[in-house]
Every structure is written in C-alpha cells, then in structure tokens.
Specification:
The chain is mainly alpha-helical. It is built from 15 helices and no strands. Helix 1 packs antiparallel against helix 13.
Length: about 260
C-alpha cells in the first residue's frame, strides 16, 4: 500500500526540472529523492490512522498531520502557498486546484469501505487546502480509480469512470513533444491517468508517466498510485523505494499497511 505513489515520486524526482522524454531510464538512482508528494501522502495516511475508528474529524486531523509531518521536511518541494499554509497554525484553505490534491490522496482508497466513502474521505483530506472544485475533482477521481482497481475493475471500467471527470482524447505519444510543466489538477491528472491506461505493467506505468515530462514526480505519483491497485508492485521495487525514506516516514508507511491490510 502507498508504494505506488512513493515510487512514482522518487523515480520522477530527478527529472522534474530536467525532463527526460523517453522510457529508458533507471527508475532508482543515487540522484533520486522523495519530495513533498511522498511526505504529504504519508501525512494523509497518518491522519487516516489517527481517525480510523471515526472519520468525522478527518479534515481537522489531516490539517494537523500535514503540518506536523511536513514541517520536518521544509525543503522538499512544497508549492509557495502550501508552504505558507503549512507553517501557519490557522490559515484556512486557499481555493487551490494544484495537482498536490491528487498526488497525496491515495491512502483514502485503502481506508474507505465503499465508493461513497471514497468520495467523502477524498473531499475531507483535500478541502483543508485545495477547496476549489477542480482540486476536489482531481483528488476524487484518483482515489476512485485506485479503489475500483483494488476491487477488480478492468481498464475499460476504469476508463469509463475517468472520462466522467476528464476527456482522455489524446495519447501519451501525441502530447509528449509539447507537454510542459503544469501544476494544476486539470492539466496533470488526465495526463497521469492516460499514462496508467497505456501501461503494460507497473514498471511501464512508472516509465510512461515520467516520460511525459512536465511535473514528472507528481505525474508519476498519481499514475503509479492507480497502477499499484491494478498491477500490484514488485517486492524488489517496494524495498528499493523504502531505502530512500527515513525512520519517521517508514514508521507511518508500515503502521498504515498494518492497520489497513486486507481491507480492500
């Protein structure tokens, strides 16, 4: 659980500002590192752990854990407004529709009992910062696709759901030459989902998403969070990804997996 988003983030990290638009790269490299995508995914996971007996206060708890976990990693790539929010104790949501809404939402799919609860939990963890409809939309579809993949949906069914949110009227090969860095949900989530849909297996999802260019770590974190639910993740890749994390983040990852294992 959650390794998909973390692997995508780590694999894309060294290419975020130096895009590589091919698929023949080393997924794990000494130049790779975890970014805010991993930190915030695990902060959301911690909030779900803290609320697992009662999700009614999830938004409040998530705001707290995002701040408390995130402040340990002040230089890992937060957006400007998010950084101000994180170091404030009482700043409200700021109508963001940034792609951070979708890159951190994957823990919701493992904690939810049904699709209705997926939407409720996705909104709760998103609205603490990204309360613009486009931010909520990006988080919701990412969480729904992962949930459905975990519960056996095939790609045709998953694409049908995705296209209720975004038109996927392009291929990765078509957009790769011209796609540029974009931090919005509406110009990151569709591209990430298409990368998943075109992938043959989990590793190919990593390579396809990174090769799109743009905000490569976030694109890959989103694509690979869904790909994990559909394909699974090779154990060797999980182990390699964990080697990039410190003890604080590893503890959250392992506690979350222990708490929600077998819930799908």
């Amino acid at each position: 659980m959650l390794h998909g988003a973390i692997i995508g983030d780590i694999a894309g990290s060294r290419f975020e500002f130096d895009n590589y638009r091919k698929k023949d790269f080393g997924i794990f490299d000494k130049r790779c590192f975890f970014t805010d995508d991993t930190v915030m995914t695990l902060a959301v996971a911690q909030a779900l752990l803290d609320c697992r007996q009662n999700f009614s206060r999830l938004g409040e708890v998530c705001a707290r854990t995002m701040r408390s976990v995130g402040r340990h990693y002040p230089g890992c790539g937060y957006g400007g407004r998010f950084n101000v929010w994180m170091f404030s104790d009482d700043m409200p949501a700021y109508r963001s529709f940034g792609n951070g809404a979708a890159m951190r939402v994957s823990p919701v799919a493992y904690a939810a009992r049904d699709r209705r609860q997926v939407k409720e939990l996705a909104r709760a963890v998103t609205c603490v910062t990204h309360d613009h409809p486009e931010g909520i939309k990006g988080a919701e579809v990412t969480a729904l696709l992962l949930f459905d993949a975990l519960h056996g949906a095939d790609k045709a069914a998953l694409r049908k759901t995705a296209e209720e949110y975004y038109p996927l009227d392009f291929t990765i090969d078509e957009i790769r030459p011209s796609y540029r860095f974009n931090e919005t949900c509406q110009n990151t989530v569709p591209q990430a989902l298409e990368a998943f849909f075109e992938a043959r297996d989990f590793e190919d999802a990593v390579r396809t998403a990174v090769s799109v260019g743009g905000d490569s770590d976030t694109l890959a974190a989103i694509a690979c969070s869904v790909a994990e639910g559909f394909f699974g993740v090779p154990e060797e890749m999980k182990t390699r990804a964990e080697s990039y994390l410190d003890e604080r983040l590893l503890r959250i990852l392992r506690d979350f997996n222990a708490a929600f294992a077998g819930q799908k």
